[in-house]
Amino acid sequence: MPEAAFHMAASAPPMAADGPALLSARGLCFDAGGKRLIDGVDIDIRPGRRTVVMGANGAGKSLLLRLLHGLIRPTAGEVLWQGRPLDREGRLAQAMVFQRPVLLRRSVLANLRFALAVRGLPGPERRAREAEAMERSRLGDLANRPARVLSGGEQQRLAVVRALACRPRVLFLDEPTASLDPGSTHAIEQLVAEAHESGVAIVLVTHDIGQARRLGDDLVFLHGGRVVETGPASDVLDMPRSEAARAWLQGRLYLDTPTGPKA
């Protein structure tokens, strides 16, 4: 298995990694309102690794995931899937779960069925995946209940198993347990761990240091839209090299914001 999920070119010292990348970013930038929010990020996401993305509020974590997933266009730079510009095929090999689950005004089962139908799966394969997802989520008794009346933890379990039913090679998770109780958090983490064991590359945004230790192989720390530190999760959490990471982990405010857009 590769030693690291990311290769940083300019923003931070590179982590060693072997083998081809699934998803890459080169010189990735994003501007909005006259401000540079993502600034020159170079990333290689490799198969089977669990990468945690951390940083203070406003550092660009969620924005980076949306750029990598192709939900928004970068101002500069590019996103590559297996060395080629990210296209529909590449996006279909990814899935993303948001902090607030995005659910249709349909039943639990219909939410699963719709996601799989969009992928063009034949009926027998679709039904098999639906059954598997219902079992994994432990929502079988709620299959016909409107998804939007489920509890927060149940909704997030549905969102995760719906994403995994599509058999992604990369799963993005944007603070999926931020507002959940410990029991619901444990259930989500179990699903993520099972996905990793099956070979799915995980990219997780979290503010939870304990969760980063439980789920992270590698850690990328963002500050002001730039990668300021990266390495094995335990090393970054225990012995951060950058002042921004040290301050955040110690609960201190760090106001040394990088300068604005480059020419």
Question: Which range best describes the helical content: under 10%, 10-25%, 25-40%, 40-55%, 55-70% or over 70%?
Answer: 25-40%
Average pLDDT works out at 88
| Main pleated sheet | 6 strands, mixed
SSE sequence, one letter per element: EEEHEEHEHHHEHEHEEHH
How far is the first residue's CA from the last residue's CA? 39 Å
Helical segment count? 9
The strand order across the widest sheet is 6-7-8-3-9-10
Structural class by secondary-structure content: alpha/beta
Beta-strand content bin: 15-25%
Q: What is the β-strand count?
A: 10
Any idea what the shape is? Answer: globular
Low-confidence stretches: 1-17, 259-263
What Rg do the Cα atoms give? 18 Å
Give your account of this protein's structure:
The protein has helices at residues 61-68, 88-92, 108-118, 123-137, 152-165, 182-197, 209-215, 233-238, 243-249, and strands at 23-32, 35-45, 50-54, 76-81, 84-85, 94-97, 170-174, 201-205, 218-223, 226-232. By secondary structure, it is an alpha/beta fold. The strands form 2 sheets. The chain has a 6-stranded mixed β-sheet, with helices on both faces. Mean pLDDT is 88; it is low at 1-17 and 259-263.
Layout of strands and helices, then pairs:
Elements: E1 23-32, E2 35-45, E3 50-54, H1 61-68, E4 76-81, E5 84-85, H2 88-92, E6 94-97, H3 108-118, H4 123-137, H5 152-165, E7 170-174, H6 182-197, E8 201-205, H7 209-215, E9 218-223, E10 226-232, H8 233-238, H9 243-249
Helix pairs in contact: 3-4, 3-5, 4-5, 5-6
